[in-house]
Structures are given as structure tokens and as C-alpha cells.
Write a structure and sequence with these properties.
six-stranded mixed sheet, 32% helix, Alpha-Beta Plaits, 2 domains, globular, 299 residues, single chain, alpha/beta
């Protein structure tokens, strides 16, 4: 039995089908990501799995239980960080976390431990309304984790965090997963999903279009490798005549050579003494995402 089992999950708002017969399983201890452009149905899917929203159709089981109608047996075993969190006014960060922890009988020492783990020690006595957006995000994550649930749902957990805070949070989430917890997150950061997730589902228009490990999805894309050489290394005409080069693009960084035979092209560049400053960019999860969902901007 998986930690999460979803079959035929559907939710409509008027004529708009936000989630359209979605199905997947998440194994116990797995780090599972849901990716998609704005309006793809990620958050609605997560909210139905969490028991916050009633499905129109389909089945959901979390840790062997049905989350809807609200299931009191499941609540202590789940941790939920919402995309937009609300806090009690006029409480300090520590008081806020202690209030959440008290609902689950968490000891004060555990509250202090989580304040430290999310990097809010120097803000523990600051009222929540005076916290920055990134600090409120970290407090929200601590509230979802303070009772150490079996399964954690995180909806864009690193939004509004600076790069250093994002990396620190990655280490925290990776440690949670290593300790045996199941983690499910939605994110817009492809590097985040690639670094953390065992498998990812790419959603668009309410459907899951691809589902596999990040590495398998990248392999399946068969994307060309892009090799950037300095502008002074060789004329564009010479680059276009290299064996294995499919196309050449002039950019501000230099010539970008697209190839599916990178070893042969690099050998040719070495023979011409043109390896100084070379950069090699293989296919990434972002390439898979754009190839699957398109490049059109979604507001």
C-alpha cells in the first residue's frame, strides 16, 4: 500500500475542469513533486488529497485512510504548508509555533528546536506581522513540521526565500525524507525538483502529462547538448561545418553549438585549440517542463 493513492480525481468550477481524472501513487518514504504552470491544477489536487477540498469524483487514500470528509485520525499524521498562510495576530514567531504545537501536545523544547532548524532564532520574539515574507514562509513550514508528521505536504515552500535560505531549506527537507517521512511538494523551481524529488508529475490543464524520475524524464527528452564557445575561438562559418553540429546560434556569451554528439564536437574543438572558456549545457528538467507544457507565459 502506498502512502498516497489517487484514482480518477476530478474537480470543476463551473465550466472549468481544474483537475481532470488525475491518478497516481506515492510510495511511503518517497519525495514526490508536482510541477506545472500557473493554473495547472497543482494546488487543487494537493488540497483534495489533504482533505481541505471535496472532490467531484475519484478516490483518494492517504496512509490508508480517506481524507474527506475531514478525518480526525489522519490530522496528527499529516503536516500541511499552504501556498498562503494566515497566522494569529499579535503573537510572536515562537508563540505562533507553540500554539500550533500545543494542538498536538508538542513539548516546548521541540518548539525551540524547530525555531532553530528554520533559522528564526533571532526573530523568535518578533510579532508575526513584523516578519518579512521569507521569514513568514519559514515559520509556516515550521508550523507544518513541528509535530513531526508521517507525511508532509508543501505548496511552493521556498517561494519568497533568498538563494541561501532556499538551499538551507533543501537540506532540511532532504533530512526529513531521509528519516523516512513521505514528502509531497509543488514548486516552480525546476532545480529544486531535480535536486530533491525521487519522482515528479508534470501537470497542465488539470491532467498529468508526464510522471517519472527527473533523470528518466531528461533522458526521454532526447534534447540536444548546447556547447558555448567564446566568440574569438572560431568564426561562425567554421563552427557550422563541424561534424555533429546541428545548429549554431550567436549570443552575447558566444557561439552556442547544438549537438547530439558532444564528445565528437568537443574533440574537434580541442584539435582547433578552442576549448578555453567552453561551457557544456546538457538537457535539464526545465527543458522537459517547457517541451511538455509549452513556452507561453501564464499569468
Amino acid at each position: 500500500m502506498g502512502a498516497i493513492e489517487v484514482a480518477g480525481l476530478t474537480k470543476s468550477y463551473g465550466e472549468t475542469k481544474a483537475v481532470d481524472a488525475v491518478g497516481f501513487e506515492v510510495a511511503e518514504g518517497e519525495f514526490f513533486g508536482i510541477l506545472g504552470p500557473n493554473g495547472a491544477g497543482k494546488t487543487t489536487t494537493l488540497e483534495m488529497i489533504e482533505g481541505l477540498r471535496r472532490p467531484d469524483a475519484g478516490e483518494v487514500r492517504v496512509l490508508g485512510e480517506q481524507p474527506w470528509p475531514r478525518n480526525p485520525a489522519l490530522l496528527p499524521r499529516m503536516g500541511v504548508q499552504l501556498q498562503a498562510s494566515s497566522f494569529f495576530e499579535r503573537l510572536t514567531a515562537r508563540e505562533q509555533l507553540a500554539t500550533f504545537g500545543a494542538l498536538y501536545g508538542v513539548r516546548p523544547a521541540k518548539v525551540d528546536e524547530w525555531i532553530e532548524r528554520v533559522g528564526l532564532v533571532d526573530k523568535a520574539s518578533t510579532r508575526v506581522e513584523a516578519l518579512s515574507g521569507g521569514q513568514m514562509q519559514r515559520l509556516s513550514i515550521a508550523c507544518a513540521l513541528v509535530h513531526e508528521p508521517d507525511i508532509v505536504f508543501l505548496d511552493e515552500p521556498t517561494a519568497a526565500l533568498d538563494p541561501q535560505a532556499r538551499r538551507n531549506l533543501w537540506d532540511l527537507l532532504d533530512g526529513l525524507n531521509d528519516s523516512g517521512r513521505t514528502v509531497v511538494l509543488t514548486t516552480h523551481y525546476m532545480d529544486e525538483a531535480e535536486a530533491l524529488c525521487d519522482r515528479v508529475a508534470i501537470m497542465d490543464q488539470g491532467r498529468i502529462l508526464q510522471l517519472d524520475s527527473p533523470a528518466a524524464l531528461v533522458r526521454g527528452l532526447d534534447a540536444a547538448t548546447r556547447i558555448t564557445v567564446l566568440p574569438e575561438s572560431m568564426p561562425r562559418e567554421d563552427a557550422e561545418r563541424l561534424d555533429g553540429v546541428e545548429s549554431v546560434e550567436q549570443t552575447t556569451d558566444g557561439l552556442v553549438l547544438a549537438t547530439r554528439a558532444p564528445a565528437a564536437v568537443l574533440t574537434e574543438l580541442a584539435a582547433r585549440g578552442a576549448l578555453d572558456g567552453v561551457r557544456v549545457h546538457a538537457g535539464t528538467l526545465e527543458d522537459v517542463f517547457l517541451a511538455t507544457t509549452g513556452r507561453e507565459y501564464r499569468a
